[in-house]
Write a sequence for this structure.
C-alpha cells in the first residue's frame, strides 16, 4: 500500500467520509452508501502501483480528468467494493491518486477528495 493513498476522503457522489488505512482497508465512516441496512461499509484496496511513464495503464475515462503533469506522481489503485450490500457500480473499480488534485479519480466518474485532519482526529461523527 503506497502511503500517498492512505488518509481521509470526502466522497461527494455518496455524501460520505471514507478512511483508507495502511492495510488498504476502506471504511465508510459516515454517509448514505447502505440505505437499506443503515450500516457503514468496508472495502479493500487490492493493489497500488505507480503509473507507467506513458500512462497506457490508466483508463481513458480517468486520464482526461487528471491534473498532475508528471505520471511518476500518479498511483493506480484497484478497489474491491464487493463487500457492500448495495452496489451502484461494478464490484471492482480502478482509480488514480492524483496529488495535484489531492484525490482519487475513479473510472465511474467519482472523485474522492483527500481531507486534511488533525493528528487527534478519530473518525467519530457527532451531528
Amino acid at each position: 500500500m503506497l502511503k500517498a493513498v492512505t488518509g481521509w476522503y470526502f466522497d461527494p457522489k455518496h455524501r460520505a467520509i471514507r478512511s483508507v488505512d495502511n492495510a488498504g482497508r476502506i471504511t465508510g465512516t459516515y454517509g448514505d452508501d447502505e440505505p437499506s441496512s443503515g450500516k457503514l461499509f468496508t472495502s479493500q484496496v487490492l493493489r497500488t502501483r505507480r503509473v507507467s511513464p506513458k500512462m497506457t495503464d490508466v483508463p481513458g475515462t480517468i486520464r482526461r480528468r487528471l491534473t498532475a503533469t508528471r505520471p511518476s506522481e500518479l498511483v493506480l489503485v484497484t478497489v474491491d467494493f464487493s463487500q457492500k450490500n448495495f452496489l451502484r457500480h461494478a464490484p471492482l473499480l480502478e482509480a488514480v491518486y492524483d496529488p495535484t488534485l489531492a484525490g482519487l479519480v475513479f473510472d465511474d466518474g467519482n472523485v474522492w477528495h483527500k481531507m486534511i485532519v488533525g493528528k487527534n482526529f478519530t473518525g467519530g461523527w457527532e451531528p
In short: The first helix runs from residue 60 to 63. The chain has one helix and eight strands.
